[in-house]
Amino acid sequence: MLKKLTDILTSFPHVRLWYLILFILSVACLIDVPGAPVFGMSKFTQIVFTVSVSAFKASLLIIFAAWLWRYCKASILLIILLVLYIIVAITNVGAFAFYGFGMSRKLISLIAQTNPSEASEFIPDIISHLGLLLSSLWTWIAVIIAILAGVLFCKLPRIVVILITSALSLTGLGMYTWLFFSFDTAKTSIAMSLRIPKYFMDQRRWNLEMQQRIDNKKPLPHPESVKSEHAAANVVVIIGESSNRPNLSLYGFPLQTSPYMDSIADSLIVFTDAIASSLLTSANVERIISFKADDLVEGDWYNYPSLIDLFKAAGYKTYWLSNQERAGVWSNAVGALASGVDVMSFVGMEYCDDTLLAERTFDDVLLPPFKKALSDDADYRMIFLHLLGSHTIYHKRFPPERARYSVNDIYSAPLNRPWLNDDGAQLLADYSNSLVFTDSIWHETFREIADNPSPSILIYLSDHGEKVCEGDNLRGRDSHSVEIPFIIYANKAYREANPGIMEQLAAAKDRPFSSAALVHMLMTLTGTDYELYNGADDPLSDSFVARTRMVDEAPWIHDYKY
Question: Under a CB-based contact definition with an 8 Å cutoff, are residues 493 and 477 in contact?
């Protein structure tokens, strides 16, 4: 077997030169992967991974090329495959060098959505980047080292070449196997030859699904009947992620996890009994921004009119600013629902696994587009901010230098959790730090609203909560994990202009309701009249009726009293 393989390789012309070319192209195709934050590799490990896995890939490719050459005489096919590999490698390393992310769904989407006219606008920028690259001393040092290494490689005795390539390839196989079995995500991202076709197929499938959902959206019936007094010129709705109400100091948690909110608590309307209508982000956001109430279980979300369409008809310019993904397994519904806004911006990663191949984006990236939207020349604005909040891996949701709590702080706090070990305490510290960082994002939006001369309101709620080290040292969700913070701030101009609504807010703070009631609450807060308004579902209305709330289309077991 080994002799046959050797015969195949030696029959391939200039085999060492082609191996070097394939090795360099493989490095270019993998260069964005080892530095991904999800892997947490040291600089040395990144270098070893890139070199060894590239050698392993080059070995497989040269064997395949030599086999095609010897048995199929497929020279044309080899040229086509080589050209494609060169294009992919240049695209990957170029995008990574210029924009910070390689061949990801974000890049594929960017390419797909760019027309020839827009593409021409990138040319000066690309030329500028290339000029800087070519003028760098380090670039030329790298080129010289590569040439010298190539010449040396071609002149080494065959046995030495075999030993070097075999050792690197086996190391690469080992590192690839370690990474594949050590992580639940990014497995196809490890091999460029796998992620490219997968990304294109996923992109096409998700685009089709997204378009189908958009096409199926129910239009707002009788939009001409919408009337609004525009009681609020600016409406800002912050949708948090995985923020558990009992874990906020505003609601009594012993660690100060919402310091800015705490400092102005007397100026806030803090609702004490709001819950989410689902334990899942997409299922809950579907109801937050549509007329589908939590107790309506018939038909999909797109069979119900959209909150966004309602307020566009009411004269508001609408914005959807998100640090979550535009599309993915769970995100198409949210992306489709938000598709009707006047301004849509996904400022973080647009697709669910792009964060694996790019630097982490914290929620403060939403602040510049938010301030830009607030200074827009529209008369009335409704701005949604969709945070990444405390999603999944808590320590990645805040800058390390912004960490407020450590394991020792958790042990010192009066939590009465004797089961906590170091891992659990660290998990709870990370979760608490992510909540503190979300509070800082809320504070920045609060400052803009508080100083605004126009009547303005700021609403903060979460998509769902999270169970963190309650009863054990793990995280997860249970029936209590729909208990969410729901907070409203009205600035001075709004309070002075709408004393009656402020009285309604004060009277409603302890009423039990689901976040699916947001559309009705917003109609009251903005003085908007529409035929689908239902006072029984509006906690701010005197007609509100407390009832058993539904979570994931089943009665919430903690609402037995209703």
Answer: no
- Burial level of 98, CB count in 10 A (0-12/13-18/19+)? middle
pLDDT for res 330: 41
Are 282 and 307 contained in the same domain?
yes
29 vs 88: CA distance, rounded Å: 7
Token duo for residue 235: 């409406």
Q: Are residues 312 and 177 in the same domain?
A: no
Q: Are residues 543 and 436 in the same domain?
A: yes
Query: Which CATH number fits the domain that encloses residue 460?
Result: 3.40.720.10
CA distance 109 to 370: 24
The average pLDDT across 152-160 equals: 80
| Letter string b/e over residues 227-262, b meaning 16 or more CB atoms within 10 A of that residue's CB | ebebbbbbbbbbbbbbbbbebbbbbebebbbbebbe
Residue 309's φ and ψ, nearest 5 degrees, are -65, -35
> How far apart, in whole angstroms, are the C-alpha atoms of residue 67 and residue 61?
10
Residues 254 and 192 in one domain: no
SS3 (DSSP) at 390? coil
Dig out the tokens for 72 from the structure.
């199929």
> What are the tens digits of pLDDT across the range 77-88?
888 888 888 887
pLDDT at residue 190 greater than cutoff 90: no
Our measurement of the distance from residue 237's CA atom to the centroid of its chain's CA atoms, rounded to an integer in Å, reads 18
Cβ atoms of 169 and 63 within 8 Å: the answer is: no
Q: What's this model's pTM, rounded to 2 decimal places?
A: 0.71
Q: Could you tell me the pLDDT band of residue 517, with boundaries at 50, 70 and 90?
A: very high
Confidence (pLDDT) at 336? 64
Domain count, the chain: 2
204 and 237 in a single domain? The answer is no
In this structure, which amino acid lies at residue 47?
I
- Establish if 521 belongs to a structural domain: yes
Mean pLDDT of the chain: 83
- Phi first, then psi: give them for residue 234, nearest 5 degrees: -125, 125
Q: Which domain holds residue 112?
A: 2-209
Q: Are strands 268-271 and 554-555 parallel, antiparallel or unpaired?
A: unpaired
Beta pairing, strands 486-490 & 268-271: antiparallel
